[in-house]
Amino acid sequence: MKITNYMNLPEGFVKAVSVTKHNKPGCLSATTLINGTKQIILMDRHWNDLTEDASDHFYAVFGSACHKVLEGEGTNDFSEEFMSYEVDGIVITGRIDNYNMETGVISDYKTVSVWKIKFKDFEDWRKQGLIYAWLLLKNGFEVKTCRFIAPIKDHSKRDAKRDSSYPKCPVYVYEFDVTQKDLEEIETFIKEKVAEYKQCKDLPDDDIHPCNAKQRWEKPTKYAVKKEGRKTAVRVMDTPEEAIKLATVLGKDHSVETRPGESIRCMDYCSCWQYCNFFRDVVAVADTQEALSA
After folding, report:
1. How, if at all, do strands 222-227 and 218-219 pair?
2. Which helix H or strand E contains 59, and what residues bound it?
3. Which residues of the chain, if any, have pLDDT below 70?
4. What is the Cα–Cα distance from 10 to 281, expressed in whole angstroms?
5. Residue 91: domain span
6. Model's pTM, two decimal places?
7. Alpha-carbon distance 12 to 289, whole Å?
């Protein structure tokens, strides 16, 4: 991957940006397993032609600095330990931020936006934590709990005082106990993902099925019932039929406004979008149509 520096940032910052591939040949890392198979393959296949700007990695560098501070080993801990286990010819890998051998607790460190906390969007963390727990188990270590310790990069003390749903502290801890059922389910997930990857890895780019809605961070299309003279919507509905029915009941000064959905990751957070036919045929087209209608 090529790193540009359009913002003319200091050379030390640019050097600090990591451009190392997550996956070596024949390997899938825990952090890439939770992505869509199309994204995994396109990222690996086109790695040398991908381009990102150093400014896009600002918070990644900030997160790496936090890791260095927080990952110091205790008496019963090990940190930054590499684990691997082979599944049907593919090596699953993971680098554990911190594991306490006495308590069986995995700790992983993230830097996050407050919106992830407000929306309680932790499914990716849970999967990643369970993959780490599974890897540790396969290497002879029992895991009882996964903890994610997350400094909130855009935390506001003012918003914390006036919004009951807002995190009160600028560091958020998400944790869960690991059960036998969890480990069985994540092993099934890993085996299915490996099988899917092997089926798709040699297909042409456009023949690989697209990432699913969750993997694309899809925001679905909504239908707002608007009242003439009012700035905010009366109601926001999931289907046009519901919205039209409500607008009809409320009277002639009401109308329905379509709020198009978005694949947020495709638009702003996927480095291989230029090689993805789903982006080209669906996401870019929808964005162009929305711009023309604005």
Report:
1. unpaired
2. helix 58-70
3. 18, 62-74, 286-294
4. 38
5. 2-204
6. 0.86
7. 41
